[in-house]
Design a protein that fits this description.
Butyryl-CoA Dehydrogenase, subunit A, domain 3, alpha+beta
């Protein structure tokens, strides 16, 4: 998606965000599939269901290799990079895809790739085929959890797709340190939550002596969890860029066709300037997200931290503003249940806080820079 090169005339660094042929083909394929499988009617149908997704469509995602793009080929994956995952996320964000893709194909996959080992590799292989789904309890710092070395007790809150996952991954305290463990969902009591964004299910998970298998301990467990959180947030930023671009497109199209006082409403300065400002913000958000997701495929942890914090804190705010402006640009119809504008707004509001919010990431960036 992006390559850095040095400009000898200025001794500066320029970044080329041109898509590779492979990434462009992936984008075109995803856009075509999503237009057919994730139209407004289908989104509303799935978000009203208990599971929130369709198993047959999930199997199609697996068949296309979209569940494990970054998993090594020897484990059944495509062996690609996170930049390709970002391409998919952007297109999924445009369509509000209802599927446990972020929880299983991104968060769970990311933490398993860091843990590695027989159990982690076996689970990655199962995720690749689509026969199993996993989720990561990414807010375990807020959870009341105990681990005796063999079983977990307590509650993990706001777990993405927690009620439909087959395996739950979480970090638990252990002997003054922590352990990354895997728990079979059959031993977990899930309570679905009423959430703002109905297109992305969440649940509270209660563990009562649930058998747990240790995947990593100590610093490795902490590093795996931190890495997965960063990856999840950056991929979500790419999704937010896609959503922001879509609501801007919807605003422009409505502005061209909605007539008021004998002229298209998009010709009035109030709307014209608002959409122009939104366009600038969306393009800047694209640059931030594209750069951040590119750094995930490098070994430069410092660059990843800086780029991720910028992208996560900025893209969420841009999406929220763009979605809010889209409702305003549509007038009264934008507030109604029948219109999709409010669905994007709810996705934007919820996603902005999913991994801690902009203030949290800016604080982490300030600490890293020594401010």
């Amino acid at each position: 998606m992006a390559e850095a090169s040095t400009d000898s005339a200025t001794d500066g660094v320029t970044i080329d965000f041109s898509a590779t042929d492979e990434q462009q083909l992936l984008r075109e394929t995803a856009r075509k599939w999503l237009a057919d499988k994730a139209d407004s009617e289908r989104v509303r149908e799935l978000m009203a269901s208990d599971d929130g997704f369709d198993q047959a469509e999930w199997s199609e995602l697996a068949a296309m290799g979209w569940l494990t793009l970054v998993v090594p080929e020897e484990l059944g994956g495509a062996g690609m990079g996170w930049a390709e995952v970002g391409v998919l996320a952007e297109e999924m964000g445009r369509r509000l895809l209802c599927a446990p893709w972020l929880s299983s194909a991104v968060l769970a996959t990311a933490v398993l790739l860091e843990a590695r080992g027989d159990t982690a590799d076996d689970l990655l292989g199962a995720l690749a085929g689509g026969e199993r789904r996993a989720t990561l309890a990414h807010r375990t710092g807020d959870a009341d959890l105990t681990f005796d070395g063999a079983s977990v007790s307590g509650t993990a809150r706001f777990v993405l797709d927690g009620a439909t996952a087959d395996v739950v991954l979480l970090v638990v305290p252990r002997d003054g340190s922590v352990a990354l463990v895997a728990v079979d969902a059959a031993e977990v009591a899930a309570t679905p939550l009423p959430v703002l964004d109905q297109t992305r299910k969440q649940a509270d998970l209660t563990f009562d002596g649930a058998a747990a298998e240790v995947l990593a301990t100590g610093e490795q467990a902490e590093a795996a969890f931190a890495r997965a959180r960063t990856i999840g947030a950056v991929v979500l930023a790419c999704e937010q860029v896609g959503g922001a671009a879509q609501v801007l497109q919807d605003s422009v199209e409505y502005g061209r066709t909605r007539m008021q006082f004998g002229r298209a409403i998009g010709s009035y300065q109030a709307l014209k300037h608002r959409m122009a400002d939104t366009l600038k913000e969306v393009e800047a958000a694209k640059s931030a997200a594209y750069h951040a997701v590119r750094t995930l495929d490098t070994d430069d942890a410092g660059e990843t931290l800086v780029a991720s914090a910028i992208a996560v804190s900025y893209c969420g705010e841009v999406y929220e503003r763009a979605a809010g402006h889209n409702i305003q640009n549509h007038g009264g119809i934008g507030f109604t249940w029948e219109h999709d504008a409010h669905l994007y707004f709810k996705r934007a509001k919820s996603s902005k806080l999913l991994f801690g919010g902009g203030r949290t990431w800016r604080s982490e960036l300030a600490d890293h820079l020594g401010f």
